[in-house]
Design a protein that fits this description.
Strand content of chain A: 25-35%
Largest interface: A-B, 39 and 39 residues
Largest sheet of chain A: 7 strands, mixed
Structural class of chain A: alpha/beta
Oligomer: homodimer
Helix content of chain A: 25-40%
CATH class of the largest domain in chain A: Alpha Beta
CATH superfamily of the largest domain in chain A: Medium-chain alcohol dehydrogenases, catalytic domain
Distance between the termini of chain A: 10 Å
Shape of chain A: globular
Number of helices of chain A: 12
Number of domains of chain A: 2
Chain lengths: 338, 338
């Protein structure tokens, strides 16, 4: 099968690899309908994370079930399914608590930029998308596999509720989806922090009421100005570097919440400063599986359209250009068609 | 009036100072019925915090209103009152949000180990204790002024609710009061981390169901053993050093909460580790004022008896011995009678 492999920083190739196959009776293999490049793939692509050897890329997928193991009961061949980037049994105590990305049996679903994908723990991981699914919904269903689920978790972790003022740090696909989540959860004021016009426009389309172009402590000061000197009720940190975390913490009101979903790189939080701020902090790899049934329904009923974050669509064979476009910020997010 | 003054590390004297007096029309002056020494006073006493000059001590008080400024309407001379260590207007946005210790007009109420105390913003700060108050309730009312309110906030910040398993790090007065709070908020399993028999006994009397004597990662491992390998739903960090914070974070289940009320000294939190733990963190100086009316009622109806943390009572003039006894861990907490 055709699949992407990262060989060294900035060197993505599409190659022939062995076709994904069942390994456990709880596995499924799906034929990929659509996959994509994630902002977090760029940490590897840019060499920020070490690339130890040839590395199959991608962890987002929507596809048709091709084959299931003997113990799989919840999905069957031919069904359209979407799943999270972490396989989970969905029955262990951590899953029951809503943290499927901390499942006691979790397994990363890698190598998804490929024609076929092996999904472990299929019963706990995959969600069947019912009915005849319109082609126009495919990008949004794909977004639910990670960025929409991650933006949703940022809002849930920051306890966004009706009437809240929410600020979003980061205008990548996750940050833009976090705007959708904040709106769906009832926020009445949503401040997108972005200095890129196309992303500002999409943020507004998704529900942002204000745009702040300043960054760092200047950005935080602007958030305070917009909120009567107090700060936002909730701030969604969707980047993951020390500056963005400081910006988030300093933009939040006493008693407010930061939900952080950008994988932290070099972030240290000063205990004393956090203490006196009264700000709460929850982050982590989003338990997308917890939100998927609800998100799929919101997509199919047309309530949300997170697929709009894909502003570049390419055949899988042109994945290298898809990575480049995102690295150079020419594209927000690249959808790949096998 | 007689009052304690810290002159240098380990050098507390009781001296004559000018009697507390009204400075603003919103002030009250109270005649102290009881005051005490706080665990946080020991940071100064031991020289961990620099002692720049002679420093009046104490920030906990219950007393009779002696005099009020011309704008004070909610309390009047002769009434028994209790208040927080931070004066607050109780009307600004931060107060309305329940974070009175981040009041836009907050003012620290220091020098309370004295016969009289000036309390700024009396209307927003003081809570009248109604009726004829039995002498036996005075220590518990005094505890509400800080340690009981702080233990309560630890539990609220950690979102303790019915059926939860809660671990408490720290067996000082705040940790012991946090056990009371966890029980009152419905926790069914409360694990006190303590290696001192009298404190273990008081923790059990207050509602602890288990005691763990190990510390650090060994202590955290023991909490995991006691919770099916998962960790506690909520951990209340009542110490404030790097080891206790690590112990708290490592004792919490994915998706659980740490409430931290020990003033952090040298605590740094690694963003990446916090991220992958899925643990939420909220701390800060407890907004005691938010809880005071409820806590006073629980004391007067005999539901809670946090005054038991005072295992040493001395006349104010012997305050130096009160500090020494706590420093040497001969006493949990010292009550002083002016």
């Amino acid at each position: 099968m055709r699949a992407t492999v990262l060989h060294a920083p900035y060197e993505v190739r599409v190659e022939d690899r062995p076709k994904a196959a069942l390994q456990q009776p709880t596995d499924a293999v799906i034929r990929t309908v659509a996959t994509c490049v994630c902002g977090s793939d760029l940490w590897d692509y840019r060499g920020v994370n070490e690339v130890a050897g040839p590395m199959p890329g991608g962890h987002e997928y929507v596809g048709l079930v091709e084959e299931v193991g003997s113990e799989v009961t919840s999905v069957k061949p031919g069904q359209l399914v979407v799943g999270s980037f972490f396989a989970s049994d969905n029955t262990c105590p951590n899953c029951e608590n809503g943290y499927q990305t901390n499942c006691l049996h979790r397994e990363f679903v890698g190598g998804c930029q490929a024609e076929y994908v092996r999904v472990p723990l299929a019963d706990g991981t995959l969600v069947h998308v019912p009915g005849e699914v319109a082609e126009e919904h495919i990008p949004s269903l794909l977004a639910c596999s990670d960025v929409m689920g991650t933006g949703w978790y940022a809002a849930v972790a920051a306890q966004v509720g009706p009437g809240d003022t929410v600020a979003v740090v980061g205008d990548g696909a996750v940050g833009l989806c976090a705007v959708i989540a904040a709106k769906e959860l009832g926020a009445t004021r949503i401040i997108a922090m972005s200095r890129h016009t196309p992303r500002q426009n999409l943020a507004r389309e998704f529900g942002a009421t204000d745009v702040v172009t300043k960054r760092g402590d200047e950005g935080a000061a602007r958030i305070k100005e917009l909120t009567g000197g107090i700060g936002a009720d909730a701030v969604l940190e969707c980047v993951g570097n020390p500056e963005s975390m400081q910006q988030a913490l300093h933009s939040t009101r006493p008693g407010g919440n930061v939900g952080f979903v950008g994988v932290p790189h070099g972030v240290q939080i000063d205990g004393e400063e956090l203490f006196f701020s009264h700000v709460a902090l929850r982050g982590g790899p989003a338990p997308v599986r917890a939100f998927l049934p609800d998100l799929v329904e919101r997509v199919l009923t047309g309530r949300i359209n997170p697929g709009k974050v894909f502003d570049l669509e390419l055949p899988l064979d042109q994945a290298a250009e898809g990575y480049r476009a995102m690295d150079e910020r020419r594209a927000i997010k690249t959808l790949l068609r096998p």
